[in-house]
Amino acid sequence: MATGPGAANPESPDSPASASAPRLPPLPFEQWDEETRSTLLRYLRRPELYLSGAPEAPPMPKALGLFAHHVRLSETFLAFTGLFAGDHATLDPRYRELLILRVAWRTRSSYEWYQHTRIGVQAGLTTEQLYAVPHGAEAEVWTPVERALLAAADQMIDQFRVGDDTWRLLAAEFDAGQLLELSFVIGGYLCLAAVLNSVGLQPDPPTEPVDAPVLPPA
Fold first, then answer.
1. Region 184-209: what's the mean pLDDT?
2. Which site among 2, 168, 174, 185 is 20 to 30 Å from 89 CA-CA?
3. Which residues span the domain enclosing 41?
4. CB 196 within 8 A of CB 109
5. Confidence of residue 207 (pLDDT cuts 50, 70, 90)
6. Contact of 134 with 213, CB cutoff 8 Å
7. Three-state SS across the chain?
8. Are 119 and 195 contained in the same domain?
9. How much is the pLDDT for 147?
10. Angle between helices 71-83 and 176-199 (to 10 degrees)
11. Which one of 83, 109, 130 terminates a domain?
12. Does 205 have pLDDT greater than 90?
């Protein structure tokens, strides 16, 4: 079976091998009250596409259906993670997505992985880099700063803190605000991965093909 860059992805997120019934199913959009709709739809890009009623309209993202179960909690968390990709973000989007993808791979978070392989490509990550994410900092494709970022993600997952040597490498590249931001990107998406894995949220149907490694089962 081909598994490198350029190989066809043998398993889609919705294939029988990867799908299972969620413990906490997303709340269907038809069951959202007005407060939930007005709150959560703000976090969609071009919500009119989802609400058009057209045959080709994309389905409501499953994550928003999950968040609809507790709109006040979710509004706070969405605002928090939304900052990382908003006007006040200070990290290069490629670095942000690299950190999220390493967290998703390490935690076996299928929703994060399949969502952010697509976002990562949009942010500028290459197919070669996507295939290097599973190998972490040891892959030859990375620059020194990218290796340090990947090491930081692994260390926060394994040791609950970034090691001194890795921190020194990052501090030579990033200012204080960026160091705080990258730490919260890792920690925030580690938190989200644990929640999504626990509730059993499955990935959304792919909107476009992405050549990326297939996430192994948890």
1. 93
2. 168
3. 21-83
4. yes
5. confident
6. yes
7. CCCCCCCCCCCCCCCCCCCCCCCCCCCCHHHCCHHHHHHHHHHCCCHHHHHCCCCCCCCCCHHHHHHCCCHHHHHHHHHHHHHCCCCCCCCCHHHHHHHHHHHHHHHCCHHHHHHHHHHHHHHCCCHHHHHHHHHHHHCCCCCHHHHHHHHHHHHHHHHCCCCHHHHHHHHCCCCHHHHHHHHHHHHHHHHHHHHHHHHCCCCCCCCCCCCCCCCCCC
8. yes
9. 98
10. 140
11. 83
12. no
Instruction: Give the pLDDT of residue 159.
Output: 98
Asked if 68 and 103 sit in the same domain, the reply is no
Report the predicted TM-score, pTM, of the whole model to 2 decimal places. 0.89
Nearest to 104 by CA among 206, 201, 189: 189
User: Residue 1 domain-assigned?
Assistant: no
Does 47 map to a domain?
yes
